Amino acid sequence: MVRNGSRVPTISWCCLKLHKYAPMVLGAVLTVFILASAAGAAEHGRAGRPLCIVLASASSQTEQLQQILTSRYPASAVVSTASMCPDGTQLALSVGPAALRDMTQSAARYPAISLFVTREEYRKIVATHADISAIYAEVNPGVQLQLVKQLYQRPVRVAVMLSEETDDLRGLFTSAAALAGLTLQIIRAPPASDPGRAVATAGNFDALVLIPDPSVLSAVSFRTILEATYRRGEGVIGFSAGQVGAGTLAAPFASLSDILAQLDEMVSVYRTTGELPAPTYPRYWSVAINESVAHSLDLVVTEAARQMGSRPNGANEASPGLPSRASSDAPRSP
Fold first, then answer.
1. What CATH topology corresponds to 11-137+255-273?
2. Angle, nearest 10°, between helix axes 60-72 and 11-18?
3. What global pTM score does this model have?
4. Of 19, 53, 115, 216, whose Cβ has the fewest other Cβ atoms within 10 Å?
């Protein structure tokens, strides 16, 4: 999905490539961030508290990410397991689920910030480790409901499928739906069920919101859900730009530059106060919209919908979920 003629990689792709969801192409675009990150290397390098970057899996993508992070934090050590972090390490950055799992199992314990993991992955892996924070891969689900409101421009019925593992999000969705003036329908996903069939038999709704729930979503179930909703004329709001390229109506997403900007802020807070910020959804984000799908649903996409987002560096001060100025970041189709 391309918007405003720009193409950049997204953080959602990085997470999905590192784990089990459908991948997005990262490739050569990462070199742009390597050059951009180098410009701020001197500023980041002045900090006195050393960082340790844990990359548990080796690939061309993680090697490029390593270059980006080390150019941003030039005094950092880069290791494959937390036990290899040097003495004096004050803060660790774990990249992906495997590195996060290694952090929790290592005898060497450091305060850490995890990247490229979903909220559900973080909850399963971290459990009670209070000294590990995270920037989740997906944007706050409440933003997805605000996106529904902007796209449909009328009160509609929106559905979300929750499993036993994600049922704790019920309250968040209920509040967000009320705030957006939407009618919420919860589709319960029984264990070992066919999500596509559950959606097809769930009754009438106008839009379906997807969240990263491994007990519900797989490459196969994603396709069956798209087919079921397409036949019924229902839009699907995903959680990554790659899903928009694959056929969903739209999705909010955090780009790599968005996550790095927020990471800088969290590292700065820790270095200044000694307090590790709490795990959080991305603060900065944009939206991707599939104009062809919108047309098939008889939706007129407004500029307000296209320009939803929250940008770093004071680019806008909009509250999450509210329209903001257009972003220069745009997703790549897979």
1. Rossmann fold (3.40.50)
2. 130
3. 0.79
4. 19
